[in-house]
Write a structure and sequence with these properties.
With 465 residues, the protein is mainly α. The chain has a single domain, classed as Growth Hormone, Chain: A, CATH 1.20.1250.20. The protein has 19 helices and 2 strands. Strands 1-2 form a two-stranded parallel ribbon. The longest helix is centred in the C-terminal third of the chain and has 41 residues. It is globular and about 60 Å long.
Amino acid sequence: MTAPAPTPSTESAPSKGRGGRWIAEWDPEDEGFWKESGEKVARRNLFFSVLSEHIGFSVWTLWSVMVLFMGPEYGLTPADKFFIVSMATLVGAVVRVPYTFAVARFGGRNWTVVAASLLLVPTIAAFVVMKPGTSFGTFLVCAMLAGVGGGNFASSMTNINSFFPLRKKGWALGLNAGGGNIGVPVVQLVGLAVIGASGGPRVLLGIYIPLVVVAAVLGALYMDNISSVKNDTGAAKEAVRDPHTWIMSFLYIGTFGSFIGYSFAFGLVLQTQFGRTPLQAAYVTFVGPLLGSLIRPVGGWLADRYGGARITLWNFVGMALATAVIVLASTQKSLPLFTTAFIVLFVLTGLGNGSTYRMIPAIFQAKAVAQGLSGEEAAAYGRRLSGASMGLIGAVGALGGLGINLAFRQSFLSVGSGTGAFVSFLAFYAACFAVTWAVYLRGSAARTRATAAAEAKPQLSYAEV
């Protein structure tokens, strides 16, 4: 017997043949629906989505803390440690693609429970093997297992993208991502407390194993699935063919790739280049990711208000300037200047994360309007294409973290410092600035001037994206 379809303001009844809580009708673009009941349900799902994603990020970046515990008795070189964290980054990037499609296949709530439960595998595995004498290969496998935590971001963002109307997406996606990102500094803060208390890495793991269980249980109890969310293979193929998917992937490498790459590498760079002890490095390591995570929703809000392309453009200018200061500090071996500039760079990566991700649904909405669509039809097109592209953009962006850690590894092997890596990052941010300006600002303004007087049909304009 099939239960009647629930309204969003009530508890969701299961649909026939499907387990879990399902909402049959969901239209966030309808302002009456949104004010009456939709907003309450969306905010509840957002809260528990943030919790699960937060724990996922913490597990993904566990090894940025674990390597600080691994002294000479572990027999690992700095290059080995950079390679370990690189592999965690790689797996976290790759699994984002299947995690994106899992939301529609299993339901956002159901997959959140599964994804949270999977975090038990890397945490328990690391708890078992974390001791001197364990082989480098074993540590590498455990770090790769931790990469599943990186997939939580993609499924969470795809899920929350379906709950909120376009006018609220910048705020909602920024808060969802920022709350997840903050799992990075939190695990580093917990690691600092453990190191300060002379505890070992197993103490840190013992703290997170029960938290994983809590996230899975709360997701099962309080989240919902939306029946109308489907895997659209046509949309996926269209998104892959659309050049904006790859342009935004490139820009997201510059923002999120920098954030996650630096989050993994910051403590190791302080240890290797400036001779900091594990405790000294841990005192500073968490600050940058913390501020970068907290400011991510601000980036989304600014993009909502002023246009994501404009915020992203000037954010890359700031990132380039901060990186130039880091290069100067690195060559002069000035730890205070280096640390300050690095923290500023972290803040800017977080701001750019929010603004670039907000651009994605706005770009496809602008394409819908340019094709003559309007109202709910345009909104549906935007949701369809942006949802299909988000997983791919998130995965490619996360690969930037892999590139950063491999660049650091090579720089330390070649010249004994991270200076060479920072010079390459500076050049990349300059390229991101150029692409943002050329594609989303200069070209848009030129087209608008050329066609405003001549044509009455809608024009493709990204100036407010």
